[in-house]
Amino acid sequence: MIKVSVVGAKGRMGGNVVGAVNDAADTELALALDAGDDLTRITPENTDVVVEFTVPSVSLDNVLTLIGQGVDVVVGTTGWTDEKLDQVRTALASAPREDQAVFIAPNFAISAVLTDYFAGIAAKYFESAEVVEMHHPNKVDAPSGTAIHTAHTIAEARKAAGLAPVPDATETDGGSRGQVVDGIHVHAVRLRGLNAHEEVLLGNPGEQLVIRSDCFDRGSFMPGVLLAVRNVSSHPGLTIGLDNFLSL
Question: What is its EC number (predicted)?
Answer without folding.
Answer: 1.17.1.8
